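Try this one yourself first.
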């Protein structure tokens, strides 16, 4: 469970944010004159730190192994997993999503950039197109055969286009 709450210490003139995440309370003082972005997530949306940590553990990787797969430093991965980085670098987010098979839209929601309502589900693929994709992703089909399929489809598209242009 996590929450964020604002606090103000009138005697000291301090203003800041208190947060509870993974059982640790952190106080963040905001100096006067500085502006910070506040990330508010729905209660049922996992944090980006949870997505990364759960994804890494699902793959059975250590933080060092995730570093090797993603190119993101172990120190950065550790800060993200501990919730110490509210706005990770966009390149790091993309690399971690790619390595851990996290939907980037889910990452954007967990980081507070999008809401669940703003994410539209993808339309399901027609069965024949899904069948073709399944064949192209099948590890039992050789890369040579897959390339021949792709080349043939490109040829058919070009042939169809030239026939349409001639009309």
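Now uncover the answer:
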């Amino acid at each position: 469970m996590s929450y964020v709450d604002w606090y103000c210490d009138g005697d000291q003139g301090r203003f800041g944010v208190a947060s509870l995440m993974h059982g640790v309370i952190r106080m963040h003082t905001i100096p006067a004159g500085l502006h910070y972005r506040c990330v508010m997530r729905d209660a049922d949306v996992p944090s980006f730190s949870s997505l990364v940590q759960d994804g890494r553990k699902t793959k059975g990787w250590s933080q060092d192994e995730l570093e090797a797969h993603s190119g993101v430093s172990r120190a950065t991965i550790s800060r993200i997993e501990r919730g110490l980085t509210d706005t990770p670098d966009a390149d790091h987010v993309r690399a971690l999503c790619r390595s851990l098979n996290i939907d980037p839209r889910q990452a954007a929601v967990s980081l507070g950039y999008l809401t669940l309502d703003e994410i539209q589900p993808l339309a399901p693929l027609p069965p024949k197109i899904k069948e073709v994709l399944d064949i192209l992703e099948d590890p039992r089909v050789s890369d040579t055969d897959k390339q021949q399929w792709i080349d043939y489809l490109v040829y058919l598209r070009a042939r169809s286009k030239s026939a349409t242009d001639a009309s």
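Discussion: Confidence is low (pLDDT under 50) at residues 1-25, 32-40. The two ends are 64 Å apart (CA to CA).
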